[in-house]
Write a structure and sequence with these properties.
The chain has 333 residues and is of the alpha/beta class. The protein has helices at residues 2-19, 35-47, 61-73, 87-92, 104-114, 134-146, 160-166, 180-187, 202-230, 235-243, 250-253, 277-293, 301-313, 325-328; strands at residues 27-31, 53-57, 80-83, 96-99, 124-128, 150-154, 157-158, 169-174, 191-198. The protein has a six-stranded parallel sheet with strand order 3-2-1-4-5-6. A three-stranded mixed sheet has the order 7-8-9.
Length: 333
Amino acid sequence: MKAHSVARNFSRVRRRTFSTTPRRLENYGFIGLGQMGYQMAKNLQSKLSPSDSVRLFDINNDAARRLAEEMRASQTSGAAVEIAHNVNDAANESDIVITVLPEPAHVKGVYTEILSRDLPKRDRVYIDCSTIDPSSSREVARWVTDANQGQFVDAPMSGGVVGATAGTLTFMLGTPDSLVPKLEQILLRMGKRVLHCGAQGNGLSAKLANNYLLAINNIATAEAMNLGIRWGLDPKTLANIINVSTGKCWPSEVNNPVKGVVEGAPASRDYSGGFGISLMKKDLKLAIVAAKEANAKLELGDRAREVYEEVEQVETCKGRDFSVVYRFLGGKE
């Protein structure tokens, strides 16, 4: 009886031991190491297991090399780091490919190169964090599906370079429901919030709708502040009234365009940093294109785009935060 009991106990222990398997190695490819991608890749790598790997690629070889050196020198444990020779090399052995690119043409070009005939078949997940038009994103998703190379999802983000550095980005995710748990786990290594917006392409639709409103509100806030100040109102008093009334919005409360109203806002440092006017112009243009495709009437879109184009041509406004519209309007500084 005692021998049988020992055998049963040993069998139970052995079953428990054999059922515990180590987490599978995951290989990541990260393509696009601009101001956003550089910081996102850094956060991702630092929060992965040493058994994982990240292959970096950017058209700027120095950026990839510099980031790899920073990652290897870091005292925190993280995934192994390699530099890819090209985008296909970055994706070749990867389970997850993350892209952060400037324009629709760049996204299409990169995925055309990735989806070459010599790419090994694998059920990859491609996460595109670029801000492009939804139609282009859906087109690339079809390419991936047709090539039988996995799934392509859109995950544009909000939070800027500051959020990318701090790991506090918000991602707007367009993907089938079945992928959400896996993608949340990945994206939360680079941000603090993931908002599932529905099917592929819907993340971009949500971001562009929000940024369209932001573009309009920014101009209106600059005009309202300029108007009130010229009528003799103190800037802080005017902002306080707006921000407890129906005119309250992000440009009035957080990114107020008048120097001294909000401590730390770009207006207080000659409009440096923040959300560049060229990026605002780009997102507004994408929103207008997407609206036309959806037959959605926009009364203010084209005029707002003209304003940002004019602002960008002024030497004292060029390259600055988009709240510099206030300066363009002749606001008192």
